[in-house]
Amino acid sequence: MKTIISKQNAQVLKVSGDAKLYTANKEMVLQAGDQIIAGEVVFFSDSGVVNVQYADGSFDVLDSKNAQEQGELSSENAANLFAQLNEAGSEESITDDIAAIQALIEAGGDISDLPATAAGNSQNDGGTSFVSIERSAQETIAQAGFDTNTFESDTALLDQQASRDEIILDQTIESSLEVDFTINNQNATSTITGTAEGVLPGSVLNITVTDVNDNTVTVDNVIVGSDGSYQIDNVDLNNLSDGQIRVDASVEDVNSVVVSALANQTLDTTAPFVGDGTNTITVGGAEDGFINQDEVDETDLGLVIEPGASIEELVITGPNGGTVTVPVDGTVLG
User: Fold this and answer.
1) Residue 43: pLDDT band by 50, 70, 90 thresholds?
2) pTM of the predicted model as reported, rounded to 2 decimal places
3) In what order do the strands lie in the sheet with 19-23?
4) Domains present along the chain, CATH in parentheses
């Protein structure tokens, strides 16, 4: 097994493989929604992976690749590792304090005249020794020179368990999804973009494009990036009908809840033509509406097209089916 010490409070979002938490002298199997307190020890098998979100909102992946080797997990070595993180209240420090008091009494000193000590462990200075005394459940008989009951110090473990109990377990992380898209009417393609919050990076979105006749295009392999954004280019809309197009997007968030979003645009792949009531041509220099050979040099054509349309060339068709193509600069091509 390998271990990682959590650098800050975190919530477990997803667990793959074998991962356990050792806290307050207890071992528990990690599951989605569990809380990890800063300083607690997470044990991993070689295949164990834990996705977490820290208190500052950042995401992380805990796995055996960046963990320290600790050998096989057992109650004994887990307790030893945990004890290293909780040095306060150790048996050795309390025993040393008692020995110092006994030495002072044997030397004829008066412990009631000792100056007040600061909170916490005290230090020696200039040859004068002072000790800090804290209340414990230990009983020592000075004449016997040994302890009459077994040393037990659960102070650190109780404090850590209390800190866990004081945490309000809000296992719901806010999430949201946004989607937007643009349409290139000339080649009937679309670019779909958006952002996701409260969603694990690497999550796969479900995206469907639907036209006015309920024809659909399904977009695959849209992945949420590390910054929560996503984008898919050149979505083919050639099998959809002109008119309103709707994009529906959905994804599962860290709470295992599906969040969704939609957006609408208009698809218009039909070239503008005169006679549909929207596009018109005005002829200047030919009052009767017909252009004969003598009027060619004196005739101007004015074109009014529908909003949003663009013209690359103008094709004029004669009554006998003949055509004349005019580019946007007005030069006759044939």
Assistant:
1) confident
2) 0.46
3) 26-29, 19-23, 41-44, 2-5, 68-69
4) 2-84 (no CATH), 91-152 (no CATH), 176-267 (2.60.40.1220), 280-327 (no CATH)
